[in-house]
Records
---
Amino acid sequence: MIRPVRFASALTRRQLLGSTAALAFAQERRPNVLVFMTDQESALLPGLAELPNRRRIERDGVRFTLAFSNTPQCSAARSSLLTGLEPHQTGVRTNVDESSLGKPLSPAIPNVGSVFAAAGYRTGYFGKWHLGGVREQFGFGSIGREQPDGEVAREAAAWIAQQKAPWLAWVSVLNPHNIYSIPRVLETIRPRAGVRPPASDLSNLAVKPAEQQAYVDRDQGRQTRGFTPEDWLRYRTYYLELVEKADANLGTVLDAVPDLDSTIVVYTSDHGDALGEHGLPYKGPFMYEEETRIPLTIRAPGRMPPGERTDLVVQADLAPTLAGLCGVRWPGRVTGRNLAAGGAPRDAVFLEYYAKQKWVNPIRTIRGGRWKLNWYDSGHQELYDLRADPHEIHNLAAEAAARDVKADLERRLDAWRGKQ
């Protein structure tokens, strides 16, 4: 027989009621979460951009100046952002569409949608998905349509305005990915004052892995192969304009948040863009800083002290960081770190690349504070001293003076690869 609970005294009962009330209060006080993600935005912008809404976040947020995409491919990068795992662990090694070789993300892997929904959050996903499968299986209770960025922002804003706390909204806009339209609009773009030209051109590929020249000869690099220096200024101007359009849509969403100080706001992107450096557009079989460095700002009032951080971080860190900030238990293993938990900073990050559409060309990268090694499965290598050569112009892989440095990086990269 189940016996009723008897309280030993009135004080004990008050204590129990007080703890129950405290638990309910703690649940109510869980912060809301807004993740605003752009597509193909490099952290290394080629000039000044008017980003008033980004500045709203940065004023009271943490800006990570050395944040990296785990892989510069849309689907694979998104799988890391959502799961806290590296692409070879999520199984999404490259893009997921009919023209590519990528496999959809499995809904059996814990992700931000399913984990936060299980913790009692109202969850919504708006905009580009690009991970295959049925989005409703990933824990997002509300799914927005894939539509133009302005409509995505307005739909997300309307959803946020109707929610009771705690809620989580993931807003995924397309820009500046529309840089792919540059061949069509090139002649309409007037170069913006102050836009910097690329630091090197196609001639620099002579000392680089042959795959990069093949991208120019056989792949999307053909679209810009005949660009003049003036054309690259137009390219970079147009890119800044697209980043500014994304910022306007960020403003639409931020304006719908009823209490920003009770909301964790994240601004980030899936990967960057080559921006014409070394004569290369878009993204491809290369791991230059413009392509792998991404913006990452986390505004978490009272939970993370604002300012600039220069430690090496990757996008797989986002999921465990959000869980930690919100007191949500992550039910599985992650390789990302909780960036709000402190601890010793990394001395290097490991990045990967698998394929572009059906062109399989694996690359693995170790990037430390000074040195960076890119190792292609073909055997080609690039070694850069980022302190002396931030634009990655001088490939030192064959230099005798760098032999010991390269050997150490190879050893570490081999050890990481062995875990895959």
Note: The chain has a mean pLDDT of 93.
---
Amino acid sequence: MPPGKRELARIERRLITMLTEACETAKGEIKGFTWLTHTVDLNTLAETLKVIWVFETLADRKLAQVDAKARIFELTAIALNEAYIDLSLLDRNVRFDSEEECQRIHSGDWQKRLAKGY
């Protein structure tokens, strides 16, 4: 039986709380990192979860993809585990983005950018 609305709301709250902790940790460790967000359809979590790590500049994003990718995956995995979400992370679940790219392509409109799947 699929989870009900209350259980899905609990999952979402736990996920937000744990991703917030990962975000705060990363701010002190990863150069140029500013914030993170996620998109998900909780009814198909494994297929739809995307955690988007946002950096100030394109250069910061590219550097993180080389130097901090393992740490970002580790922080994401810890957050999911602490939110009681059993998911083997894949590259499709973790995305890297930047304020600079959003400003250039979507005039700083993150809702529009996230809706397009960047």
Note: Helices lie at 5-29, 45-48, 58-67, 69-82, 99-106, 110-115.
---
Amino acid sequence: MKRRKIVWLAIAGLFFLLNFVAYRHAYRMTHFVPAGNRTASPENLSFAGKLGVLVTGVTVPKSDGGRMTNAHHAVTFMTADGIKLAAWDVPAATNRAVAILFHGYATSKAVMKSEAAILRELGLRTVLVDFRGAGDSEGWVTTVGWKEALDVTAATDWAQRKYPGLPVILLGQSMGAVAVLRANPRVEGMILECPYDKFLTTVGHRYRQMGLPAFPFAHLLLFWGGVQHGFDPFRLNPVREAERVTCPALVLAGEHDPWVLPAEARSVASAMKGPTQFVLFTNGGHGSFASEEYRLTLGAWLDATLSRRSGTGK
């Protein structure tokens, strides 16, 4: 009887410990800190470092909004739930369309400058947006794509009011791509870089990189993250969201992406109802595809998409 009690106490203690660690991981992953060194990626951590992260969770400082050297306007707009967002509005030589760019997790609009420069070379005005909790926007919290959909809607509404005669193209990287899919505003087209198929899947990849099984760690992290932020992360399912998309879309993936496997990004592309092109960058990782191949890919897709709108496409 005493042995059985000890076993049950051990099981209860392990259950409590797993949930405590998962709660802390969810909190540290979604609440940014004012300063400090960001925790390195799992593949760059020593065994001791991985053990420390397992116990304490990651440290993620709020990203720097950066500086834009091109002539631009610093603009702000409000989301439906009252968050003030910051953005750069940068004109191109021709301004044949407006491209709104949305960054990934724990970064800022500053990381999108190379992609924006390529889009301006292709004749598109660019609007680079800081998500809530990032860069120069308000807040210290991220929901990794869920509430960020409101940010996409706010930025799109602003651009369509500001430039009513121009078609709007949305470009999202990783979390930004997921937020674009969730928002699904009426626009001319979407460029989605490394969209994960399910939030559970990409979190599971991160635990595997730590040498841990996805179950139960990823499931517990999602559960407690949902408790903390008031939504169900298990419903963060870009494949399902993609089924509502009818506008032209370009989905990009990297063959060596450890967080979003090519087949996962392809499943998002396959679910879309509108004309969709999937491109795999054979030397690519998780985003940051800016290159001559990237420029040619975007140029061809934009020409086809914008000519279709004007009625000159075949």
Note: The mean pLDDT is 93.
---
Amino acid sequence: MLNFSVFSDILLRYVDLHDIGSKCVGFFRKIQSMKNFNPETPFNELPPLPPLIDIETPLVLKACIAAHKELAQLKVAERLIPNQTVLINSIPLLESQASSAIENIVTTTDELFEHAEGDGGAINSATKETLRYRQALYQGYQALKTRPLSIAMICDICTTIREIETEVRNLPGTALINDVTRKKIYTPPEGVQLLRQLLTNWQEYLHQEDDIDPLIKLAIQHYQFEAIHPFPDGNGRTGRIINLLYLIEKGLLETPILYLSGYIIDHKNQYYSKLLKVTTDQLWIDWVLYFLAAIKETAKWTTEKIFAIDRLIKSSRDFIKSKASNIYNKELVELLFTQPYIRIADLVKTNLMGRDTASKHLQILCEIGFLKEMKRGRDKLFINHRFLDLLKQK
């Protein structure tokens, strides 16, 4: 019986292009690259996009419809809370925490929100790195308002994440290592010229006009970016920021509030194994189905979280109005939900009230049990503990 690898070799050498067509040759070249894959050597045979197999199977399209439905409901929920700062300051920070945890950069929700404004005293290195992810995500979100996703934009994003000027890597030695065995599981392509060619192809694919569903395209580009691994460090986090920005660029979300990394951290082994199976076996369908499930589940989770935040804001208005009607106003309550950790200066800088009045109001809110006071050196922090507890709930 003829060995399949031998068959692909023969076909590549002797096929008549006029008889079989260039696409078929490309397909068998991909088979050849799979056969030659060695985790110890750079995968310079990484095929360019698009994949030559038909990914839009009935099963994938069914999963697409379900993911789109949940995303559409999330887009409606985004508008439920008039003060967008409430969502932009909270859920993206949870996304930052989960995405960083995938890279074993671990911090607590309390630490993150306490230092979210960067003025909460001593900050450990993991918290600093996670906050840089949030900064990079917001930076990309703002950049999208004037220009599309591009190689230059992702270099800027990775620079913010790493806090060091970052360009496409030009030195060898980058590899993905198994945390347990410490063996190489994947060595990405090497050579700055090749990397730039692959990135240019990736960028063109992002903006190519075609009939491919944007969610399928999102899954495909994510694999390709991770496989290219263009930077010395920060690739995983940059790639996950790209996911959110692409959804916004395509009009599927208005703000970067999808908690996509939450699903990935809960299914981390599947995430890495299915990415690798695309490289070794061209198992695109399995990867795309995994990714669509991630979008569906996290869109549903995020929508439910927004509904819960909205309910808490409304019940908080009623509580403060009944217990301290003399200080109640709607703007004050909304401000108390822009961050779980509140400082006197937060009230003052909004021009809502002066420092003495702000101090008095926050003290009253502590007395009625709505806030909890905590001292950090000379600073006073007031914690919206119900909001913090809600954000910590999985």
Note: The beta strands are 176-177, 184-186, 341-342, 372-376, 379-383.
